[in-house]
Amino acid sequence: MVKSTGALTRRRLIATTAALSIAGPGLSADAAWTRQAFEQAMARSGRPCTLTDEQFEAIQARKPAAIKRIADYLQAHRGAADPRVLAAFEAVPREYFHYLYSEHRGAPADAYEEDPKPWGLGYGSALSDYLGQAYMTQVAKPGPDDVTLEIGTGSGFQSALLSRIVKTAYSIEIVEPLGRAVGKIFAPLGYDNVHTRIGDGYYGWPDVQGGFDIIIVTCAAQYAPPDLFQQMKPGGRLIIPIGQPFKRGQILYVYTKDEDGKIHSKRDMGVFFIPMTGAMMKTPTTGTQPSPEPGAAAGSVEPKPAE
Q1: What is the secondary structure of 261-285 as a DSSP string?
Q2: Is 128 a residue of the active site?
Q3: Splitting the chain (307 residues) into consecutive groups of 10 residues, what average pLDDT does each group show?
Q4: Exactly one of 45, 125, 128, 265 is catalytic; which is it?
Q5: pTM for this one?
């Protein structure tokens, strides 16, 4: 395991979490996440779900071990765990996002599993494993003044995480019944800086004035959509899995835009995501994938090994 001089102590994590809870939009410093709070939020989101006290406490008891797995994973693969990323995971109740929408059934007991894996949401979508979400969040380098865009809302967990760190989080979902249902889950948590819409993420969200500091794509694209490059701010980052649908060999790419508008690319690690649908499936790849402009920094040609 990679050693880090910025080791994260439990005291430091608690302090950072408290700071996010106080400063984060929509959160109250004295708000407690209890079984009653869980059930009330689920009911307000249109997804009624009940737990016994014992079931709720069993879920909470697994959370510290999951946070430690995330910290260890980020230290091993990124050299250190960003305290803001860990604090966001600490602040956001993952069990609230475990829901099978096609069957109208909650599955909170599946949260914080020992062997992290994706969980089905219905309609062909999935809640990604929490180690992968932690990794992509840290690669994105979110900060408190950032405006973010997620392509593929899915469960809503990724944008919920980002919302605890950034100024404003936008998210687009192409599957209409899923997008409509998930669009209702943020307000009950007080996450009023999350904005969602139903649409094709291939075109981004051009109505947002000024563009985005971070665009994070949570589905596998055959290439990076040109509109997403246009909507990146100077200094912005695009995190996107690229590869063929339902095939191994997908690679996480990190694109950056410099102050002159040039695009720089870097291959990261091997990944596996469900495919981006919509226009991505209908638009030929030839001529649509921009390469770095002359003078742009060359990206890494070899990905890190897939996990």
Answers
A1: S-EEEEEEEEE--PBP-THHHHS--
A2: yes
A3: 38 44 42 95 98 98 98 97 98 98 97 96 95 97 98 97 98 98 98 98 97 97 96 97 88 95 94 92 63 31 32
A4: 128
A5: 0.84
